[in-house]
Amino acid sequence: MSSLSKVAEDIINRSPFLREAMTENLINISALARKIKPELDRYFDDDLKEGAIIMAIKRLTPGTYHRLNLKIESIVKEIGDFLVRSNLSSFTFENSDSITNKQAELMSILDTDKKKAFYTISKGVTETSIVTNLQEKSTLLNLFRGERLKNKVENLASITVQLPVLNTEVYGVYYYILKQLAWEGLNIVDIISTANEFTVIFNQEDVDRAFRIMMQIKNQAD
Fold first, then answer.
1. Hey, how many other C-beta atoms are within 10 angstroms of the C-beta on 116?
2. DSSP string, 111-145
């Protein structure tokens, strides 16, 4: 059977915000012990003493998280310029045998005006999402006529972040950025990523605040 410290750590690690707050000494350990005690009691089939749980929590080492934050901050310092786009729309279609050819045709249409056109196409197991600033939305809908439109969202905006190559070697980079957006109550509509950049899609009304937060993240790491 796992030790009390190990089980307590597993419970705490389910909440990354909580573990990080512990690292910064922002958590009342006694209150945390009382909160997780019922689950620990069920696991060990015993009425554990609160003092024992407190000691188990205090034995958790924050060293790994501190070293990880230093690595992430070194990556964040090297983030490139942010690129903001507005007037976007998102369309999600159910996958079908014919949808791939229609994607290719849409890309051909959008690529005729490379300076203005923006689009991303994400194909999942059961559905495909297209985010674009195509002004004539009827063009897209006519092209995909006969496909099942599962969702459409308009009045969107995006922020594209360019990351240094080393970002793929350090885990937690996305979390470091996205957690602060979550703390501010910003809803993320979608995320599209490649190896060294990712684009976050917001409601149009949220993009200015999101941009300020992301600039603060970058500046704080300097």
1. 10
2. GGGTTT--EEEEE-SSEEEEEE--S-HHHHHHHTT
Q: Is residue 55 located within the same domain as residue 149?
A: no
User: In a 10 Å sphere around its CB, with 0-12 CB exposed, 13-18 middle and 19+ buried, how is residue 126 labelled?
Assistant: exposed
96-153 pLDDT, tens digit each:
999 999 999 988 888 776 556 788 899 999 999 999 987 778 888 999 999 999 999 9
Token look-up 């993009």 returns 207
> Which pTM value belongs to this model?
0.70
Residue 205 within a domain: yes
Domain total of the chain: 2
Whether residue 201 contacts residue 156, with contact meaning beta carbons closer than 8 Å, is answered with yes
| Rounded Cα–Cα distance for residues 215 and 218 (Å) | 5
